[in-house]
Amino acid sequence: MEIPPLILYPYTQTTLRNIIAFEQCFGGEEDLLHISHYVIMMAFLICTPGDISKLQDEEIITNWLGSQEEVLNVFKQLRGEVVDVSKDHYADVYNKVNQFRLSKFNRHWATLMHDYFGSPWSFLAVLAAFVALVLTFLQTFFTVHTPSHSTG
């Protein structure tokens, strides 16, 4: 998934609010509500300061506002500015993300990675244990199946 980047500076909220108002006053045609849809999508993605950190790490958001709380407030307020967007351009993205999130395999994989492989050392320990197990199996196999030398 690719999300267009956004630089948040002190006048971003005013600028986006004016663009949203323009889009909605222009007639509110669904094909012309690109910024409104983008703001809704970002508001759904940003719920906690951790979400902002993740988006900053991925270089989707550049925060020149200062604190992450200010970013949260910007999107909370902007989300309230968007009225009646019945057909969202990003609806298919929401559906795909929800399908991915609700998949049992993906949930279990995320839990496994988060709980048990949070550091590279735990992964290396499991890898070393696996290699030791394979080598033990090979040693046992070749010990049992060695060709017998008969004298005679």
What features would you describe in this structure?
This protein folds into two domains: 6-102, no CATH class; 109-144. The chain has 152 residues and is mainly alpha-helical. The protein has helices spanning 12-25, 34-45, 49-57, 68-81, 91-102, 104-116, 120-144, and strands spanning 6-8, 61-63. Helices cover 65% and strands 4% of the residues. Strands 1-2 form a two-stranded parallel sheet. The chain has seven helices and two strands; from the N terminus they run βαααβαααα.
Number of domains: 2
Total strand count, please? 2
CA gyration radius, whole angstroms:
27 Å
Beta-strand content = under 5%
Largest sheet: 2 strands, parallel
Through-space gap between termini: 72 Å
Q: What assembly state would you assign to the polypeptide chains in this entry? A: single chain
- Indicate the structural class: mainly alpha
Global morphology: elongated
Query: Which residues sit in consecutive blocks of at least 5 with pLDDT less than 50?
Result: none
Strand arrangement within the widest β-sheet reads 1-2
Number of helices: 7
Order of helices and strands: EHHHEHHHH
- What percent of the residues sit in helical stretches (DSSP H or I)? 55-70%
The overall average pLDDT, rounded, is: 84
Keywords: Membrane, Transmembrane, Transmembrane helix
Transmembrane segments: 121-142
